[in-house]
Design a protein that fits this description.
Blueprint lengths: L1 H7 L12 H16 L1 H5 L3 H31 L6 H26 L4 H6 L7 E2 L1 H4 L12 H14 L6 E2 L2 H29 L1
Antiparallel strand pairs: 1-2
Helix pairs in contact: 1-2, 1-5, 2-4, 4-5, 4-9, 5-8, 5-9, 8-9
């Protein structure tokens, strides 16, 4: 819901047109996920999994298009003549990027939330500190969504892993893409905003 809200406040030139399309599609998918029930997401309900992945993909696609338009506009000089508007648009895309990648990590680590709950995949894709030091966590500790959100935030701000290590190729490549997108966004938006302020 946070990512949908952030996408809906983007300026017209950065939003996917028509501007209501992606937020409306995201809301429809979210409603479908809620109708399937919160229990469906935590069990092996294949329709809930498909809807959940579709929702993340739609929000991701919208954010990628908005980021590409922002970057192209900054490079071409057609976007960013007001520092406050540029910084708020850049922040909305950056924060959406954090939320979207946290959802990808949440959905794919050890097969997703249902597979993690069932314990069907014993080998982790992402190594959390509690896994290496079991004495620091309860015996049945499993990462919650906030753990993936923290991973996404630290990866986007440090441009590298901090305390959570990627073990599988998909995790390494996903973290690489997130760091690259964050680096380009931060560099271009801040550089352009500083240029405007001077």
């Amino acid at each position: 819901m946070v990512a949908i809200a952030l996408q809906s406040v983007l300026p017209d030139q950065l939003a996917v047109r028509p501007q209501w399309l992606l937020p409306a599609l995201s809301v429809l998918l979210l409603v479908a996920l809620v109708i399937l029930g919160p229990g469906a997401a935590s069990t092996h309900h294949r329709h809930a999994r498909k809807v959940s992945l579709a929702l993340v993909a739609v929000v991701s696609a919208g954010n990628v298009l908005s980021a590409a338009r922002l970057i192209r506009g900054i490079v071409a000089g057609t976007v960013g003549d007001q520092a406050a508007a540029l910084l708020s648009a850049g922040a909305a895309i950056y924060l959406t990027n954090i939320v979207v990648f946290s959802l990808w990590y949440w959905e794919f680590d050890r097969g997703g939330p249902a597979a993690r709950a069932a314990g069907t995949s014993p080998h982790p894709d992402l190594l959390f500190p509690q896994m290496t030091s079991p004495d620091l966590a309860p015996p049945d500790w499993e990462p919650a969504y906030v753990d993936y959100l923290y991973l996404s935030f630290t990866n986007a701000t440090a441009f590298s892993p901090t305390d959570v290590m990627p073990l599988k190729t998909w995790a390494k490549l996903t973290m690489l893409v997130q760091s690259a997108v964050s680096l380009v966004l931060v560099t271009l938006v801040v550089a352009r905003a500083v240029n405007i302020l001077h």
